[in-house]
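Throughout our pipeline, every protein is held as a single compact record rather than as scattered files. Nothing more is needed to write down the fold, since each code stands for a local backbone conformation. For reference, a complete record is included directly beneath this paragraph.
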Amino acid sequence: MRPTIAKRIIITTGVFFLINVLLLLSIKGFHSSSNRDELISPRGRLVHRNSQTNATNVGWVPSLSNVDVLLPIVVFACNRPRALQTHIEALLRIRKDSQLNPIIVSLDCNDQATIEIAKKFGDKIKTIIELPNLGPLNVPTSHKLLAGYYKIARHYNYSINYVFNTLKYEAIIITEDDLEVSPDFLDYFQVLYSLFKHDKTIWCISAWNDNGIDQKIDRNASLLHRSDFFPGLGWLLTRSVFNEIKSNWPKAFWDDWMRKPEQRRDRVCIRPEVSRTGISPEGKKGVSGGQFYDRYLRRIIKNNDPIDWKSTDVSYLIKDRYDPIFEAHVNACPVITVSDLATTVGDMKCAQIRYSNKKEFIAIADALQIMNDFKDNVARTAYRGVVQCRFGKTRIYVTSNIKPWKSYADIVES
């Protein structure tokens, strides 16, 4: 009799234990790794190459995936051999896995010294793209001095298309030879890539903060933001986005074209508080002639703090979670004026300064010593018309008087 009772107790206990395990797994949103959009990497690790998930309205989202992702690094270069060597060496120092982050170098200009530098790295570079003869550039007479921008746009279009539609990669990290990179540059993109799967309002991930000057940022290296402004300068692009926009690719000024509403379509980029890229002194030698370099670009702070991105929850960046908290926080900050900056701010944690038009915004930006220009009515780093920076110990939100927020098209000149 006793063995029978003991046996029943053991069986009952086992059943309850199994039920509890199943309940726990269901609560945590457990899912099988047999998803058809997931592939196993050559080393047996799970790699996301493509996802067609259409979820946009996310009330509850499971923890974002921390699996390894195949993300090639495409380096654009022309005729700066020393810059290319320095940049590739920096990427190799931080790269942990050549299979997850193969390096592809794309070369324009047919500069022999730069070609030799690329070849010198041997099998550490997976592919070298040398642009074929694409024929003469069609540059308007009024833009003869800007022909370099036409070459760059053609270079980007050709090589991005080649990497996506010939080499068949699903997503790439785009860099340029004059960029410096943070130690966590590649880990940053690895983790943030998962946002594309859960939020279709996100169309790019950038490593750059246009206002990332020391004393204008919080030294919180894990703090990230949504931005309506396309930053570039070390960024993640997907094949689906490129194929959506490529038919209208511009003949010049491709980055400003990316910022137009026809391409952006109310989508955002994710950007860091503390940049993951910096501009090296080689940046003064580019087509732009060092525009903004001394005043802003060379002063951008690049992160050097170790961040455990694999353990960092970035789901707060999903629109349905981010927007209510962002708006509530900004609205809770007292409204001040530019004249209050020197006397009133003090130990205030945050404050708003409001603008009604571009002219007022420029005056505020100049007082705060941040970038003051607009691209298609969007100020650098802006989200829903708000540009944020630090002034002393206070977080300043430069906010539009358009309430409730509607559109950048409503921002007038003066």
Summary: The longest strand covers residues 394-400. The chain is about 30% helix and 20% strand.
